[in-house]
Request: fold
Amino acid sequence: MYLGQTGAGKTFLAKKCLHRAERPIFILDSMNEFPSMEPGDPAPVGLVFRSVAQLKRYLISRRENATGVYSVKVTQDHEAEAFFKLMVDLGEGGQEGMTCVVDETSKFCSPSSIDDNLARMIRYGRHWGQNLMFVSRRPQEVHRDVTAQADCLVVFSMAENRDVDYIEKRHEDGELVRGLSKTAHDYAILGEWRHLPFADVLDSPKRVTHPKPEPEEEADPETEPETEPVDG
Reply:
């Protein structure tokens, strides 16, 4: 699960991770983020569908297990419900290994309610060989089933104390989280996208952290050791 403020880079990182994700990959896209097809976009190139019905027709026409990257542009709630139902049907139908991405997760569930089929995906997806990736701004905006079952949290800088408190309780080093509460300035990965990974996002469930490298000190000419010439 990827958490962080708008513009922090969580969707960008999720796109990069998809290159190592198990296929087929199904993406619920409400913000026209996956894939953008723009130069430099890190998401793997795939097929874009305007409705879940269109995606279902395509899968039926192939008459074999899906193996590609499929993005569905969702604008209405009933489309999201149909997407979750399709994922459950694929899992229960024996689709071998797949990754499902839900961008802007808070649009499709709330702390007090969750779609029945989305809940089934979260609770039983592992038995079907499904890998689930959720992207959201705050842990407080989504249903507890989503956060409680996440075995890998990638957390960018947080501004709300409630969010920091939640992350602090999930991490074995609470003082570290508290110290990184708003800027996460001591940790860096993928250049300018700075966050605190609770697990290696490319090799879950191994937990790794990436300390920001210390700046190199310039050598003092007066104390720099001399080197003897080498005979040719």
User: Anything to note?
Assistant: The CA atoms of residues 35 and 43 lie 6 Å apart. Confidence is low (pLDDT under 50) at residues 180-215, 223-230.
